[in-house]
Structures are given as C-alpha cells and as structure tokens.
C-alpha cells in the first residue's frame, strides 16, 4: 500500500510553521501531542496550536540545561515529550516542566518512540528504554556484523523488527529492515532500500544522506528524509514500492519527520527552520 502524489494535499503557506520561527535555524526535532506541534530548535522548543486552517505559535519552552539538543518525540500514552541532547534524555510535560529522564553514557544521534519503548540510536546499536516504576529498564538491539562501520542516524520499531536509516560518507546510503535471527538471536537484514558504493545518488532506488524516518502504523509505510536530494521517499513495509515527494521548497533539506496518524499528516522539519505539513487524503492498495 502507498499513497500516490496525486493524493497528497499540500497546505497553503500560512499553514507552514515557518512564519512564526526564526529563519536559518535548523529544525532539530518535530513532535505532535494533544493538538499541538512541538518544534525543537537549538535553544528552545516552539509550541504551535492550530487556529482555523493554520498553525500559530502559542508559547516557547526554554531550558538552560539542554546541551546541544538533538531530537524530540512525544509519548501519547504518557502525555509527555522526550528531548535528547549530548548527555541526557529529558522529560518535558505539557506545562513545560523539564526533568531528567535518564543519563546517557555515549553520544547518540536521534530518538523514536513506541507505545512501550523509547529508542535511542547510536553507533552500531539501538538502546531500548522501557518505563519502570522507579527507573526505565534498558536493553539493546545490535546491528548485523555486515553493517558494522556504518553510521545509523535514525530507527523506528515495526511490528516485525526495526527499520534503520544509515549512511557512511559517500559509499553507503541505505534504509534497512532488521529482524532477530531465529537461529541464534543475532540481527539480520531482511529488506533494504538504497545502495552501496558508487550507486549513491538521486535516481530511483537511491538515497543521499537518509537522516530520519517516520512510520505510518496502519499499513506499515516508511517515510524517509532523503536529505541531500531534498525530498521525502515513501516506502512500503518491505521497503520496495516508493513514491517521491519532491515539492520541497528550493534550498530546503528535510531534517526531521513526524507522522500524525489521527490527522493522516506528515510534518517535515527543514534545514532552514521551517516546518511543512503534507496531508494524505487516501491510501491506495498496490498488489
């Protein structure tokens, strides 16, 4: 299943969050919680509320404790936000109160969240935090040996494994679906989109710096922020069928994605500080 480009509604300029945000500041993260959009910038979190067909800035959350923040995600079941920086994960409630969730032992790239887990993506490993009564429990999911040395940027958990976007300079730009082997419980790559070596580029089947993913949970679609190509690639759950969303404003590069299931909308954070929404009117079935 996938959505065709004809089924994508591109909102007017007023519905972009860009008009209420400083230009030239890269979006570090985008999250949606209880009718609000939270946009992580270098020194603050901008909070937007919807007002008759467009989004308006409602407030700003600042914390001097953030150390080069990297990402933000929302946990709808717990009604909290999590912010990743260089040394900690912070918990932010809807009133803007900030507290330490967990201390990190290594620098990590991004976050993602499921109903039961918080995933922290770092070199060669996904660290999985499961909320507990006093403190979260910790487990790990390691990349296959064959992918050692690549640089994972982001990962999302699906019903049957993990999808990871990774890159390594000019020779490896790939999105992989990983599962645990039934034989020895090691991880194996079962599907992939992208290329090795000199095949990195802008054509079909190619990616250039895939830096972020978003999951459409009902059908298992994967959105890929294909940064250097200035587009979003839509893949099915087997990472095969693809649609290119290419009408990204000139000079903008997608850095963060957030799919809002209840709105059928993909929020895209850009390198210039803007956030654009793509609304999907219907999903088509591909046999």
Task: Jot down its keywords.
287 residues, mainly beta, Neuraminidase, 4-stranded antiparallel β-sheet, 24 strands, 0% helix, globular
Topology overview:
Layout: E1 8-9, E2 29-33, E3 36-40, E4 44-51, E5 54-62, E6 71-75, E7 80-84, E8 88-93, E9 98-103, E10 110-113, E11 118-122, E12 125-130, E13 137-142, E14 151-158, E15 161-168, E16 172-180, E17 187-196, E18 210-216, E19 221-226, E20 231-235, E21 242-245, E22 254-260, E23 265-270, E24 275-280
Antiparallel strand pairs: 1-24, 2-3, 3-4, 4-5, 6-7, 7-8, 8-9, 10-11, 11-12, 12-13, 14-15, 15-16, 16-17, 18-19, 19-20, 20-21, 22-23, 23-24
Largest sheet, in brief, is:
4 strands, antiparallel
**CATH architectural category:** 6 Propeller
CATH topology: Neuraminidase
Q: Judging from the principal axes of the Cα atoms, what is the shape? A: globular
Strand order of the largest sheet: 1-24-23-22
The CA-CA distance between the termini, in Å, is 8 Å
Radius of gyration: 18 Å
pLDDT average, as an integer? 84
* SSE string: EEEEEEEEEEEEEEEEEEEEEEEE
Task: Please report which band the strand proportion falls in: under 5%, 5-15%, 15-25%, 25-35%, 35-45% or over 45%.
Answer: over 45%
Overall CATH class: Mainly Beta
Count of strand segments: 24
Specify the helix fraction band. Answer: under 10%
The total number of structural domains is 1
Classify the secondary structure makeup into a structural class: mainly beta
CATH homology-level superfamily: TolB, C-terminal domain
Helix tally equals 0
- Poorly predicted parts: 1-22
């Amino acid at each position: 299943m996938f959505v065709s480009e004809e089924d994508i509604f591109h909102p007017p300029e007023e519905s972009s969050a860009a008009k209420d945000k400083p230009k030239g500041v890269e979006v570090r993260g985008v999250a949606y919680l209880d009718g609000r959009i939270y946009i992580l910038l270098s020194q603050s979190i901008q909070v937007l509320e919807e007002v008759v067909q467009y989004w308006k800035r409602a407030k700003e959350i600042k914390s001097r404790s953030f150390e080069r923040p990297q990402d933000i995600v929302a946990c709808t079941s717990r009604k909290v936000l999590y912010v990743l920086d260089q040394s900690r994960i912070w918990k932010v409630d809807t009133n803007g109160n900030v507290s330490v969730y967990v201390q990190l032992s290594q620098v990590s790239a991004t976050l993602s969240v499921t109903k039961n887990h918080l995933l922290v993506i770092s070199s060669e490993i996904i660290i999985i935090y499961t909320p507990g009564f006093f403190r979260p429990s910790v487990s790990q999911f390691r990349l296959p040996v064959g992918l050692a040395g690549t640089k994972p940027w982001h990962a999302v958990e699906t019903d049957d494994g993990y999808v990871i976007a990774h890159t390594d300079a000019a020779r490896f730009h790939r999105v992989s679906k990983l599962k645990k082997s039934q034989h020895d419980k090691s991880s194996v790559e079962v599907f992939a989109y992208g290329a090795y070596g000199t095949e990195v580029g802008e054509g079909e089947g190619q990616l250039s710096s895939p830096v972020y993913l978003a999951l459409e949970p009902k059908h298992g679609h994967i959105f890929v922020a294909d940064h250097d190509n200035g587009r979003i690639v839509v893949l099915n759950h087997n990472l095969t069928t693809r649609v290119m969303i290419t009408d990204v404003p000139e000079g903008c590069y997608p850095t963060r994605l957030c799919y809002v299931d209840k709105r059928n909308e993909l929020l895209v954070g850009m390198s210039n500080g803007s956030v654009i929404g793509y609304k999907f009117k219907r999903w088509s079935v591909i046999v």
